[in-house]
Amino acid sequence: MKQSVRIAIADDQSIIREGLATMINLEGNCNVVIRAQNGVELIENLTNNSVELILLDIQMPVMGGLDTLKQLRKMAYSVPVIMLTTFADDQYMIDAMKLGAAGYVLKDIEIEELFMAMERVVHGHMVFPQIVQKKLIEQLSQQQKPEVTMKEQLLEQGISINSREEELLKLIALGYSNQRIADEVYLSLGTVKNYCSKLYGKLRVENRAELVSYLHQLLKI
Amino acid sequence: MKQSVRIAIADDQSIIREGLATMINLEGNCNVVIRAQNGVELIENLTNNSVELILLDIQMPVMGGLDTLKQLRKMAYSVPVIMLTTFADDQYMIDAMKLGAAGYVLKDIEIEELFMAMERVVHGHMVFPQIVQKKLIEQLSQQQKPEVTMKEQLLEQGISINSREEELLKLIALGYSNQRIADEVYLSLGTVKNYCSKLYGKLRVENRAELVSYLHQLLKI
DNA sequence: GGAAAGATGTGACTTTAGTCATTCCCTTTT
DNA sequence: AAAAGGGAATGACTAAAGTCACATCTTTCC
User: Fold this and answer.
1) Most CB atoms within 10 A, among A106, B6, B80, B132?
2) Each residue of B195-211: pLDDT tens digit?
3) Domains in chain A and their CATH numbers?
4) Tens of pLDDT along B130-143?
């Protein structure tokens, strides 16, 4: 690295934290100015010391790396962050990337590799394991949805419905008329009406339109 | 590059397309096997030829680079793609990244830089201009929403409504009854009914519930 | 076996939604 | 000033939604 870079390290394992700090300081053009045991400590210290790079352990008590990162983003703190971890967990990496981490480095790499990653990140690049790119594409192309059933969603609201009611709710949410629903599920018109009445009570709405609106809001469909 | 890499180039400017192809082929361990003038041509050729890397111009007629990229993702085509463009447009870069592009390279760079980017991308890395990281963080932290009015959304569907109709639509979408709407906007019950009828015709729905469903789907509210 | 609970159906009824032709009023246009 | 047009209202009507009490049948449970 060309210039002296002020660095913050947050890791609960003192061997790693102090070992890293020592090596980084010895490297000559770097300077570890903050050593924190967790995210809270890191953020407290950041208010008094400016740094150009943060090394952030993911597994920490009190406030983990991802939560810390999220907090930093909320504070509109734009210093690049390299996540440090023992585990090459895909989802961690992707979450870190989505939270705007600049890099993701495994703890078992050679110190020279870490220095290279740090140098690249300080210069504005991103350094992620190759696997992340592939996983990210998968996630983006799948546009994965949580896939929660209407029944489960309503249960979260303290409303329990049986499968027949769920079936009818789906059709009501589509804007179907009672007659059309009756034809669709082979029930009599009267029965469909009865179910509607019961559902209005359960879901605490006054009429069909309100129910449709409520369902769409709840289910984001 | 260590091994021979099969490459596809899509660019409507023949000077760039053929020039790049020639230089890449001369480089020794690369082989341009597809040369396309646009996205459609590229995708057609990909079905017959497998490649390990795609160079994709953003500005192309018939099917632009981003649309092509989107299409490739839909086809679950996972070959890394480097976007080529004359312009360092932030939004283009971010869109490209979100669509899973592996790299984004400006056309005015030195050929050696392109080769370096290609090598990194083939090995699974991402190569984006530094600015992207920052912009991406901004976008993720803002969670910016487009903020489009109902009127505009409907206009995109070829449906034009006046402000009174928009006002009523909003209330209908909330599940309000005609009487409640009438009270809310100081119109007579009959007038509200008349508006409803007119709107059902305009929005091509049969009844109130269907309208509510349609509006929620369209507006994602 | 018999009670209880749940699913479905019926009929009669009230309320709301939806349609349509027509009128009134106000503003803009010619 | 007359015509044209849009917004709002009215009344009369039909269709659909919604309520409710009650009946029927099956399954479940003690």
Assistant:
1) B80
2) 999 898 888 888 889 99
3) 5-128 (3.40.50.2300), 134-219 (3.40.50.2300)
4) 666 666 655 555 54
